[in-house]
């Protein structure tokens, strides 16, 4: 209960964050959500348009793909804590649409202040980085996914974890066979994360 309360307090504090300029063009801060006692934490890049409007992480198309992959390996989304390295939606208005823009190094570092506190509360969790931005935030340096993906890593704070692609990368693929193969690889990475998390919990 104390852990869940601390997460709620952090979310309330983050709602007023002005540590970098991204808050100016976003509707709201999008903090993490999920069970405080979860053994698995998934960190994405940043909220998207849907997340910014609803105030919840991974509720747009990428979130639905993540849910599908979790179901594929026998996990329910409600058993996993999900959050983002950057808590505000960085976007560029284009007519009535807001297009995603990748956060830069300064924005990621500024928001690491919140991620560090979030993970400090979730101290017994295995942390999965979804994409290169999340991996950079967790490692404190660039992580080459082509080389590091899908295997046991130790993040800058010493915590065990794994890096994989962001589900949005699958959505951007044009050919259906390519998307299907990428989805299978993504689900395999999540399956390996569950296995590694269980092994780490034993030690």
Structure description:
By secondary structure, the protein is α/β, with parallel strands linked by helices. It has helices spanning 2-14, 49-54, 61-72, 105-121, 132-139, 145-148, 167-171, 176-202, and strands at 40-44, 81-84, 91-94, 97-100, 126-130, 153-154, 160-164. The chain has a 5-stranded mixed β-sheet with strand order 2-1-5-7-6, sandwiched between helices. Strands 3-4 form a two-stranded antiparallel ribbon. Helix 1 packs antiparallel against helix 4 (105-121). The longest helix has 27 residues, at 176-202. The mean pLDDT is 95.
Write the SSE topology.
Layout (H helix, E strand, L loop, with lengths): L1 H13 L25 E5 L4 H6 L6 H12 L8 E4 L6 E4 L2 E4 L4 H17 L4 E5 L1 H8 L5 H4 L4 E2 L5 E5 L2 H5 L4 H27 L1
Parallel strand pairs: 1-2, 1-5, 5-7
Antiparallel strand pairs: 3-4, 6-7
Helix pairs in contact: 1-4
Report the CATH architecture. 3-Layer(aba) Sandwich
Shape: globular
Strand content: 5-15%
Q: What is the strand arrangement across the widest sheet?
A: 2-1-5-7-6
The low-confidence parts are none
The percent of residues in helical segments reads 40-55%
- Give the name of the CATH superfamily: Uracil-DNA glycosylase-like domain
Number of helices: 8
For the secondary structure, the number of strands is 7
Report how far apart the termini are.
25 Å
Number of domains: 1
- The helix/strand series, from N terminus to C terminus, equals HEHHEEEHEHHEEHH
CATH class: Alpha Beta
Radius of gyration over alpha carbons? 16 Å
Structural class: alpha/beta
Which labels suit this protein?
203 residues; alpha/beta; Uracil-DNA Glycosylase, subunit E; two-stranded antiparallel sheet; 7 strands; 45% helix
